[in-house]
Amino acid sequence: MSSSLTTSLVGVAFTLAAILVQLGRVLQRADQNEASLKELKERREKELKPQADLIAAVHQRTHDLSSAIQGASAHHTLLESRIAHAEAAGAELRHRQSGSASELRAVLAEVLDRLARVETAMAHSSPPSLPAEAVALSPSRTSPARRGAPHTLAGTPPRR
User: Fold this and answer.
1) 160: Cβ–Cβ under 8 A, 6 or more apart, which residues?
2) What is the rounded CA–CA span in Å between residue 141 and residue 35?
3) How does pLDDT run across 85-125, given as a tens digit for each residue?
4) Pick from 63, 56, 59, 62: which is nearest to 48 by CA?
5) What pTM value is reported for the model?
6) How far is residue 94 from each of residues 32, 87, 102, 104, measured CA to CA in Å?
């Protein structure tokens, strides 16, 4: 072989070796960059995980509160309906009571009027005489019942 060919081959070999060394360094840097990127990504995920968890918790709590507000609103609407119904029933009851009170006042006025007429009639008339039977049944001042003596009623023995 000629020396120039050998020199060329050696030169190519050195160039190829230099290229391979450079390629190895580039690949090594690429691996390091990839590892750094992976580590950075993991660190970033770890840093952001609490925030992501907090955001998820806030979303869930917001959903829960929204549901609770909707339930409370529905309950409030139901209560308003019941209150309106109760107010209407109360107004009807007051109306009925007013009518009943008026009727009772009218009946009382009529009873008092009749009583006044009876009292007036009794005041202008003499008391009727008692029938003879009533006089015979009434205890006299000298009867044993008036003096506190034991007596019998309809055949029952006196108490002692």
Assistant:
1) 150
2) 133
3) 999 999 999 988 888 888 999 999 999 999 999 999 888 88
4) 56
5) 0.41
6) 90, 10, 12, 15
| Per-residue 3-state assignment (H helix, E strand, C coil) for the chain | CCHHHHHHHHHHHHHHHHHHHHHHHHHHHHHHHHHHHHHHHHHHHHHHHHHHHHHHHHHHHHHHHHHHHHHHHHHHHHHHHHHHHHHHHHHHHHHHHHHHHHHHHHHHHHHHHHHHHHHHHHHCCCCCCCCHHHHHHCCCCCCHHHHCCCCCCCCCCCCC
Is pLDDT of 147 > 80? no
120: which 2 tokens?
Answer: 């007036």
Tokens of 23: 């390629």
C-alpha 86: how far from chain center: 17
Where do the structural domains in the chain lie, given as residue ranges? 11-120
